[in-house]
Prior knowledge:
Number of strands of chain A: 17
Number of domains of chain A: 2
CATH architecture of the largest domain in chain B: 3-Layer(aba) Sandwich
Largest interface: A-B, 210 and 216 residues
CATH superfamily of the largest domain in chain A: Type I PLP-dependent aspartate aminotransferase-like (Major domain)
Shape of chain A: globular
Helix content of chain A: 25-40%
CATH topology of the largest domain in chain A: Aspartate Aminotransferase, domain 2
Largest sheet of chain B: 7 strands, mixed
Oligomer: heterodimer
Amino acid sequence: MNFVPITERDQQAMLAAAGVDAFERLLSIPPGIPRAKWNLPKGLSEPELTGLLTGQAARNRTVRTEVSFLGAGATEHWIPSVVRYLFSRGEFLTAYTPYQPEASQGTLQAMYEFQSMICDLTGMAVANASLYEGASALAEAVVLALRATGRNRVAISRTVHPEYRQTLKTYLAGSEAALDLLPHRDGAVDPAAESKITDQTACLVLQLPNAFGCIEEWAALIRKAKAQGALVIVSADPIALSVVRPPAEIGADIVVGEGQALGTPLLYGGPYLGLFACREELLRRLPGRIVGRTRDANGRRGFVLTIQTREQHIRRSRATSNICTNEAMMALNAAVYLAALGKSGFRELGVQNLSKARYAHQTLTALPGVEPLFDRPFFNEFALSLPKDPEQVNAELLKRGFLGGLALKRWDPKLANGWLVCVTEARSKEQIDRFAEALREILR
Amino acid sequence: MKESIPTAEAETQPVEGLLPVEPLLKELSSSGRRAFELPPLDVPAVDPARALPADWVRREPVPLPEVSELDLVRHFLRLAHLNFSVETHFYPLGSCTMKYNPKINEELSALSGFTDLHPYQPEESVQGMLGLLWELEGLFREILGMARVTLQPAAGAHGEFTALLMTRAYHASRGEKRRKVILPDSAHGTNPASAALCGFEVVEIPSNARGRVSLEAVRKAVDGETALLMMTNPNTLGLFEEEVLKISEAVHAAGGLMYLDGANMNALLGLVRPGDMGFDMVHVNIHKTFSIPHGSGGPGGGPVGVGPALAPFLPGPLVEEREGAFRLVSPEQSIGRVRSFFGNVNALIRAYVYIRALGGAGLKRVAEGAILNANYLKAKVSEALEIAVDEPCMHEFIATAAPLKKATGVRALDIAKRLLDYGFYAPTIYFPLIVPEALMIEPSETESRATLDAFAEALSRIVAEARTDPDRVRRAPRNCPVSRLDEVQAAREPDLRW
């Protein structure tokens, strides 16, 4: 295929206008540098590409061809068709970061609306216009806390998603900061871990619901963190916030999270949506783009990128973050998704997730040998203990058309029989029953 | 045939007054409306107040807008119409490579076999996906002249960050703790920001009079503390760094590494490979060079290619092929993860489709077209504005409004705003920092000669207006949905949510 509209005739005229007689004369690549020699395939036409990619896609089994009970940081929800339609609009899709606000009011207002809804969800005063995804958003929050407090210890619960903890460790490799891992007991932070929070602790990092799906009891931990002057960072599932108390009300200073569940498909892991919201006092330390409301020369309401003196293109090595490109289209998905569900629909969504997960929990734990791994409240995900190797069970389930839960030994070898099951509103009772029946057969 | 230029005067002024252009969703909200319905609950309903601990129960529903589906579609389409975009307007935003984004990319990346994959599915159930990613890595290796490529980074700046962490790990593996990262004063802001985030000390070196990195300055700056030199080539002035080989030599001789900020890779495709210019690492922005739509700010993707010496430090996971089967692995000395899951996979599929659509010859035609368009437009623009370094350029060039400002008071910002009135998005302005009143113009290869002519004509009319009626330019835009916005007030009294 070819998307270059320059004809032979154009080329001659354009070279002449540029004052040269041959294309090579435009190049100031010195002779010492070898010219590219590469071995790339020939270009393909649309029908050929379609054949190639359709074939490749067909080699995958999907959450549509199978019935999935996988979650662990990426969750399947029904995406209203209006979300998919608006995602396809070229006016949003083919614009860039709104550097010229007068010609970008559509994007800017949509981002302002996104920020507003994220604030409503989290209870925070400010939210940015997105970061890459959940794990790096968490790392950015910790970087903020380190700088804001001038301290260098990070207290993080082992019940935070392991990939998030690994990403954080990578992000801090170039700093003096050290991680204090708070051990867990019975699916929640061990209350004795409180002693690891000291006057050197920059922040306490927690996850809601945690990596095992549990909703923990944090009051004492948070009290301790506050007393020691540490910031409290909560990585939250935005869908859970439909029925769960906003983290701001329990003392969080920064709320981050993976926003994929808000209208973005699973996409084998990305692009997703990094959420970032915080208290007003931290506004000038926020990473990423922020949209603000203002007025034009005629007094009319309008929107601009604001407080840009935090950002890399102005502050360079003293910027609050290096981020430039973000995930604006996924933020648009989230804005449309949240508005499509609306006030009562979003609460109903939460109730359905809670109800289906409870039903599945009851149905599955009624099977012989299947036990709850932890006895904690949960939202739409829970950990079980199986009487057989969960990986073998998953292989058997796949043969029967199910993507089983996550074998927790992937995260922690000690949880050899642990199995993390996610059940959202996208699962029907009939699917849950069939899943339980398949599991019963496999375990027999 | 010349494209007709919309004349600013012929169009109507926006209606004056305080009515907003489009209400906020919140203002459209009406209690009881819904745009989406869930199927009825088919299991016993659970009351959150009973299922959750008392202090975890949300007391009031999240106060989200309540609108109908038509309200929603109309609202966001009205917003869409307030945007300039590549599909509606010429978007010569320098450094951003705002090329046309082929439809086939969107169609094929949206296949259910790609979009409906969970990142924790068993590897045997996603062999088509892993195979495509493995093949894509191979294509990037070939295009960049590198040994391995990580597809994980979510953006260019994320790629820089990844490379800087690998730099640290590489030196540490040799028992060295080098602190300095050298970069030119023309570098993108992400370069120093990424270096600082990794704990490096940034040493900025001046460019020479021809807008290039000064070899002299490099030699003076490089020492045993040098961890990395970050370079953009072609640089942010759109000029090829002719001394790149000698610069590489000097840095390597001191034990440092060479990094290419591949933001401008569009100009190099099929002409020169980063690996052949002495670079140890390079990132590419798939949302620039490889036609991923910029999505109003994202998502993009920033794969990083590395030479053999750096490959052991790549972030995990990588795809590996063994006996025809694909699996995910992490190198032993890996710097670790830079994000959750595998990367911006769905964006990477678009890049794959683009590379396969164009093939080797087509990709080379991209670079040639980008360079020809830029040089042609530069010749045209030079009739109206001074060019910062008036030599043959690569894919972009810098014009300066400094002389015009001196003569008329009209600044680069005013020209940018007035261009909006003429139906063109504005170039990048005030960057690179080393050129006063800079307008950074990158036409990309997908624009026609007629569009370039129309843009140059608009610019020259604006310069003429600046000389006869400077206020008209300074008050621009007047044909946009809003007139010039008060950014000072926005920053002083932040209003960031409803």
